[in-house]
Amino acid sequence: MATSIIDPSRTERIQFSNDEVARYSRHLIMPEVTMEGQKRIKAASVLCIGTGGLGSPIALYLAAAGIGRLGLVDGDTVDFSNLQRQILHGTKDVGRKKLNSARDRIREVNPNVQVDLYDAFFTSANAREIAAPYDIVIDGTDNFPTRYLSNDICVFLKKPNVYGSIFRFDGQCTVFAPHLGGPCYRCMFPEPPPPGMVPSCAEGGVLGVLPGIIGVMQAIEAIKLIVGIGDSLMGRLVHFDALKMKFREFKLRKDPKCPVCSENPTITDLIDYEQFCGIPEAKAAEAEEAHVPAISVGELKAKLDRGEKFVLLDVREPFEYDICRIAGSRLIPLGQLPSRMSELDSADEIVLQCKSGVRSARALRLLQEAGFSKLSNVEGGILAWSEQVDPSIPKY
Questions:
Q1: Is residue 285 over pLDDT 70?
Q2: 239 and 380: one domain?
């Protein structure tokens, strides 16, 4: 039978107003929850890292359920591109700190919840201080340094880490809690993938409703641990395929040689997670890759206005080209460029462009290696064109 992670002594003095009894009445009449379970929920504290796609349903449903204390960690601001899935925030919140719009929305849902705001990104420098006061940590982020960091700090502090991740149409959820007998994130993924191997949601996209499914699953797992009911996802990972509307379950086992949660760990304190995940090296390589002959969007506009003869080559994907394009550009996706170079004339001046300037810098290098010389890369890509030249071009 499941056991609550909340010490019984913490619920002894908890009282509910008549309004709270009415608010939580559908919990109170459930024999698995009752007044005692609701007291545990009110006594509990949960830290949610991120108030984005996953953090939105997590925070909303935990607040509605009556969590006594909810900590939110986020250093970002609301952008229009967030609104398709980050339901904590609305159109009027664009440009605001995510924490502020999240706090206001949560207060509308349940003014009885104590909301702690941490206007920062979760790092090795602040993780221990931020996470220490909470009973459960829920990871609502989409980057590997934070996933490894949240895992390690939870192992060190002996706190459950409710994990979720999303990408395009797929999501997954589990609970990492070595101190309760389960595995940790490093048992499943001892090493991070090479930088850039796994795209973020900003790079690969995500179905807007998908984080609602996975985030709610994370909130459910937290409630189960707090109330002490049901079968936790410890040792099990649930994968959800939205296109097929199928759930699959995978068994997870503790790694006896895990560097963090084994009996003889080799990592006993927080490390540099950016370095561990290869981020500095990737940024250095990207900077080197971007060090190519460049042209500003202002210079590009001047060339177009003068009617100069050159090829404006867009190396984005066709579906990106359908969203927006610079008039007169020609599309050859980066992945097709090696096999389609014969379509280009090395005698022509070629100006390369993508979304932000990174892919087009890579394309320029490929063309240089093939003998093309009259090349330049548009700094900032079509995003810079939208910001500085033509605001009618939509950003994505």
A1: no
A2: no
What is the average pLDDT across 230-237? 97
The amino acid sitting at 209 is V
Concerning whether 154 is annotated as a catalytic residue, the answer is: no
The pLDDT assigned to 279 comes to: 75
Residue 195, amino acid: P
Same domain, 28 and 109: yes
Distance CA 360, CA 332 (A): 11
* Strand (E) or helix (H) holding 312: strand 311-314
- The domain boundary residue, chosen from 260, 282, 304: 282
Q: Regarding predicted confidence, which is higher, 198 or 78? A: 78
Tell me which residue range forms the domain holding 327.
292-388
pLDDT tens digits, one per residue of 127-159: 999 999 999 999 999 999 999 999 999 999 999
Q: Is 252 found in the same domain as 223?
A: yes
Q: Are 127 and 153 in contact (CB under 8 A)?
A: yes
Distance (Å, whole) CA 323 – CA 54: 26
Q: Give the strand order in the sheet containing 136-139.
A: 114-118, 69-73, 45-49, 136-139, 161-167, 170-176, 236-241, 246-251
Q: What is the CATH number of the domain that holds 27?
A: 3.40.50.720
Strands (E), 177-276: 236-241, 246-251
Active-site choice (48, 173, 277, 354): 354
Q: Which of 184, 201, 261, 324 is catalytic?
A: 201
Tell me if residue 45 falls in helix, strand or coil. Answer: strand
Distance CA 251, CA 360 (A): 42
Q: What does pTM read for this prediction?
A: 0.84
Interatomic CA distance for residues 375 and 381, integer angstroms = 15
Domains contained in the chain, number: 2
Residues 6+ apart with CB under 8 A from 10: 40, 43
Note whether 352 and 373 are within 8 A (CB).
no
Q: Indicate whether 371 and 222 sit together in one domain.
A: no
Out of 257, 282, 307, a domain closes at 282
Asked if residue 393 belongs to a domain, the reply is: no
Residue 238 carries which DSSP code?
Answer: E
Is 277 a known active-site residue? no
User: How many CB atoms are located within 10 Å of the residue 280 CB?
Assistant: 12
